[in-house]
From TrEMBL, chains A, B:
Keyword annotations from UniProtKB, A to Z: Amino-acid biosynthesis, Aromatic amino acid biosynthesis, Lyase, Phenylalanine biosynthesis
Annotated organism of origin: Paenactinomyces guangxiensis
InterPro entries with a match to the protein in the record: ACT-like_dom_sf, ACT_dom, Chor_mutase/pphenate_deHydtase, Preph_deHydtase
SUPFAM superfamilies found in the cross-reference section: ACT-like, Periplasmic binding protein-like II
Name by which UniProt lists this protein: Prephenate dehydratase
GO MF term list: prephenate dehydratase activity
Top-level enzyme category: lyase
Keyword Amino-acid biosynthesis: yes
Listed GO CC annotations: cytoplasm
PANTHER family xref list: PREPHENATE DEHYDRATASE P PROTEIN, PREPHENATE DEHYDRATASE-RELATED
Length: 293, 293
């Protein structure tokens, strides 16, 4: 049976590219959903097998939305991670391509894409109105449908192709090392064809009460075992002010004896530990020879 | 001379309410700016005295944008914090108020407001298209200007007043204890009229290199002094993958001898420490008798 992969759409976004990279067709069937909750709920209810959503430095969605839904609303473990390089293009309709810079009155894009090009936009187009869209693909579509307006979009090179737009300028993002982390999540453990040296385990740790040094004790369990942490974040539990849990990413698989010891020790301290997933991490730059597109 | 306060506009947003709460007119002059970078840059360049922007669980702007600009682009210390309760209303044009639920085809609001009402929207209006706007105030304005369409907006009660809309339903946010933390930032230390028991110091700590247990050593400096941490977050430095710094909020003023000792110890470990601000924290719920509006 062909696996179905739900991803945050529409077509032509970075999430779509990430989904195609991890799950090349025709071995899988990719299905676009309009929001992160929709993607994760589809997998939670068994409508799709695997979800692909952005989780850090996201373009088409909010990190918070992904983490919130994984923690609070669904029971879908993380089964893989993909680091994907992000470059933004400034897109224009061919009929408007001759305009002077100052003549462009509006720039459309997803809020995260606009945020990642703030310095460029403030320098080159300080007078243009910035208008938010649900996705970078939608922004390109708006430019396509409004050939008579001196408007621009921030989007992917592929979105330019799909919508017959000119690329006015490439790589307009403020930071050259821009990337987005995407996760794949699903109820079944996945056997990956690609190889990697990096494995992660993501944990949600809730402390018994808020007292000085509580987090320090938790980290001690990792530290003396030399388990490296690659991400840590305190987040509100939403039951009120001052109540936090921690999201911790470690560079160890969960079946490792040291990892199991760390979790047991943290639970013995009175903390709740939930494993959000233990999974291999891939990097698009190192995958090129493995996956032909 | 009257102080000028730059805030993330437009009028009728939660940030506007927070700015009015911390800096009541006519003692100060409030000036709306269209983006978080614009607000902070205005203060950095001396155009305004004080900035008011959201920093956590924000409605009209991204947390990441505020933290990024404070860390990377401006030199403006945090001088105060305000915790402000957030409730969302579902707004409708009077001419459309008799529509059945299923007849509403679109719901406009800021992405964060939509995110905070996800469960409600998915349950009550699963078929409606969700359309992003730059602010909740803008969403209300769109409904005001389109009386012939069966559209809704998520916004404040004040936005309903300003735009002559009906409140179809109050408190539609998914979590009852919803709040936003706002910060005031400025080049001058502020003498506050209001009193509070809570003081915070925000630190940016950059580790000398990525090795297991580095964060643990940093936290040890706080732990044995019983300095409570109220927020911790690792964030990419934007120079590439795997390079992180930490944002740490402590519940201690920076002039306290224990706080100074902790900072000296962390620097002795080879870390870079930058104090982003040391400031009193106010809570809107406990301020009502102090500030008359």
């Amino acid at each position: 049976m062909i696996e179905t992969v739900a991803y945050l759409g529409p077509q032509g976004t970075f999430t779509h590219e990430a989904a195609m990279t991890l799950f090349p067709e025709p071995a899988t069937e990719l299905v676009a959903y309009p929001s992160i909750p929709d993607v994760l709920t589809a997998v939670d209810r068994g409508v799709s097998d695997i979800a692909v959503v952005p989780v850090e430095n996201a373009i088409e969605g909010s990190v918070n939305s992904t983490l919130d839904w994984l923690v609070h609303h669904v029971d879908v473990p993380i089964i893989g991670e993909l680091v994907y390089p992000i470059t933004h293009c400034l897109l224009v309709h061919p009929l408007q391509a001759k305009c002077e810079k100052a003549e462009f009155t509006r720039i459309y894009s997803h809020p995260q894409a606009i945020a990642q090009c703030q310095l460029y936009l403030r320098k080159e187009h300080p007078g243009a109105e910035l208008v938010y869209t649900e996705s970078t693909a939608k922004a390109a579509e708006i430019i396509h449908k409004n050939p008579d307006h001196p408007w621009l979009a921030i989007g992917t090179g592929r979105a330019a192709e799909l919508n017959e737009l000119y690329i006015l300028k490439k790589e307009i993002q403020d930071h050259p090392n821009n990337y987005t982390r995407f996760i794949a999540a699903g109820k079944q453990k996945k056997v990956w064809n690609q190889s990697t040296d990096l494995f992660k385990t993501s944990l949600q740790v809730t402390l018994p009460s808020d007292y000085p040094g509580a987090l320090y004790q938790v980290l001690a369990a990792f530290s003396w075992r030399k388990i490296n942490l690659c991400h840590i974040e305190s987040r509100p539990t939403k039951t009120g002010l001052g109540n936090y849990y921690f999201l911790i990413d470690t560079e160890f698989p969960d079946e490792h004896v040291l990892m199991q010891g760390a979790v047991a020790e943290i639970e013995a301290l009175g903390c709740q530990v939930r494993i959000l997933g233990s999974y291999p991490c891939f990097n698009k730059k190192r995958m090129k020879t493995v996956i032909e597109r």
